[in-house]
Structures are given as structure tokens and as C-alpha cells.
């Protein structure tokens, strides 16, 4: 075997795919267009740069599907999870990451790997030969996007992904704000005080909603209109759906007590999460936005405690492209018409850092096994990895296909368990126990190089 595995894109999926394939003994070339060609959202040339948030979400591997995905990636020796754990920040029950040291560490590990080469170049065509994984993510370049559309015979779908603003901590008025995780969740004091909270009374909340709705928004270019992903809606879009929507979403006031006014229950609460290890930067949780910069700063300074806020980064909006994977990809993430081409990450229609890295992990292992002359069984559907793959490669309705986070709704039911909210805890534990056993079994096939029919 003289030809390397080519991976296009050095984000979460591409980085994890390269790590997994190289550790199985395959030479890998990562093609990353940054820093030579920049994007709207990226700030550096580092691999695995985090652009939308610094959170990998829940780390609970018994009661949360994304926490289960964390567990499966750790069990597989995932680089993304190893570096996330190493650069972890207090965030209650969530896994938040100091994003710049995290990306630098991922980059250093990949660049120093003897079987990995990183090339700063842009791929704009679908190659005729060789083994390739395309993991170009939500900001696939225009040239490559057009090439993919020509190859697949259909237009790539698209939606707009919004970025939340980041605030300098020393500009926040802590006489009005306080530190507390919802329901004091966490095993340590740092975890129980991982979020910064800004309370609103009813009048302030109503004025804030009015300002959100009235603010000037970023205009879409001709032909760019597309549906949003519901898991990442701009805050003003949520406000337009109903005045109480935010109070039941990112601004819900539950599980919190304001120590400055413990006898008064806030009408709404804006939460901020630490964005770096120094604790100098905080991002506003759930406040993705498409407001223009000037109005955006004015509206967010209406939040009690943020009247004098200085923004390290204002929110923004960018186009996100993804394949209609149920019609195009097989259960090994291969393009049905060109099995030497695989796709991984957000371009396949998964949503989120963790889900993207997970699809990279699977794609890297499957590609490497094939190049080494081995065959592996399909990823088990009862694992979190398999549930995602099943959804994007056939479980979802192709006519209405939209990006999806991992969730227990993608898992096959466990017989004999009670449905509804009362049975949820036992049901989720059954899902995670079953998934762990299935995933460990699949990993054993990989480790021992079992040759099983496809």
C-alpha cells in the first residue's frame, strides 16, 4: 500500500479521521485551505478550531446521548476528546473547552505524527482515483461545493448557522450578575458556579424582546435563502416566534437564585459560559444572532450586568452546506456512486462539534480498514455512533432531511421499559448500557482485524 488516505478539511471531523487512520497504520494527507484561504468564521490556521461555541455539551454518559457519544469516542482513543479533557473548563455538567489551547494541541499532535502530512491547499475537484474523505464542514468552499453538486447530481442543501458573541469578563457588572449553574449541578464548587447569570424583570424582558425584533438584521444575498437548523436558531428568530419563547429556551429562569435579591424570582435569566482558561472571556449561551454589529451591541447592553460590556467578538452568521445524505451515502459513509469517496462531519447532516468528530472517527477507521485489506461489520445501530449513521444514511426522510444532533429519539426502543417522562431515567440508562456494549464489541473487531463480510 503506497497511496495515502487523503482527507479534505482539518476541522473536528477531518482531524479525528486522520488520527484514527494513522494510528491504524495508514499514511494520511490532510488538505486544509486555511490559513491561505480564510473563512468568515475562522480566526486561525489551527486544525480543529472551534468557531461557534466552546461547549461539547453534556458529559453525562448515562442519561444524555451526547455524553454517551463522548464515552464512545474516549473508548476509541479519540484525539478530540483527549484534547477536550486536557483543556477542560468548569461548566457544570457540560464539557466546555479552552478553545485556542485546545486547537493548538490538536494541531501539534497531528503535525508531529509520523504518518500524517498537513498540506495548506484547496481541493476544488472530486478526484477520479485514490481514497478520499471529504470533511469540509459547514464552510465548504464555493469551488468544492459546486464540484460536489456536479458529482452527486443534486444541489447541496443549505441553512444559515449563527455565532454567539463573546464578552470580556472585566466589563460585566458583578453587583447585578452572579455565578451559579442551574440547580447547582456539578461535583465541585467550580462546576456548581460555572455560569454567569444576568437577571431580568418583566419590564426589562419585554423591552429586550421589542429591541431584538426591531434591530437591523444581516441581509441574505439573492438565492441564499434557506431554513435554519432549529438547534441553532438566531435569538431574534426565536423572539419573532413568540414573546415567551426565549423564557422557555436559553433565558429560562429555573434552577437559579439571585444572591443579590434572593426573595425575588427573575422573570428571565441570560447565562454566560466561560470561554477560556483564564476566565477573561465569556460567551452568551444560546445567543446566536444575525443582527448587524451596531444594533447587536446596543441590544445586548440592555441585559442587566452587561450595560458596559466590551465584546471580544460579536455574533455573526454564515452559510452552512450539507448533503442529502439519505440518498447519497451508504452505511459506511461512502458516496454510493463512488465508493472511494467518503464524507464525514457536518457536511453529512450531523450537527455539533461532537457529532462531527464522531463521524470523522468512524470514516477514518472504515477507510483505513479498507486500505489495509480488512473488512469490518457495519457500526452497530444500537451505539450512539450507529444511531447517527443510520439516521443520516437512510433513517431520515430524504424529502425533509435536516441536520441532526445525537439524541435518544434516534435509538431503537428497548423492550419492556415504561414510556413517558416517568420511565425516562430507566429508559435512558438502558439505551446507554446497550450502546456501550455494542460499541465495545465493534471496537474489538477493529482491534483484532477481523475479516467479516460487508
From TrEMBL:
Enzyme class: transferase
Record-linked InterPro entries: FAD/NAD-bd_sf, MnmG-rel, MnmG_N, TrmFO
E.C. numbers: 2.1.1.74
Pfam families reported for this sequence: GIDA
SUPFAM superfamilies tied to this protein: FAD/NAD(P)-binding domain
Domain MnmG N-terminal: 5-373
Binding-site residues, FAD: 9-14
Superkingdom of origin: Bacteria
Subcellular location: Cytoplasm
Required cofactor names: FAD
TM region positions: none
Function: Catalyzes the folate-dependent formation of 5-methyl-uridine at position 54 (M-5-U54) in all tRNAs.
NCBIfam families: gid_trmFO, PRK05335.1
Protein name from the UniProt record: Methylenetetrahydrofolate--tRNA-(uracil-5-)-methyltransferase TrmFO
Organism (species): Roseovarius ramblicola
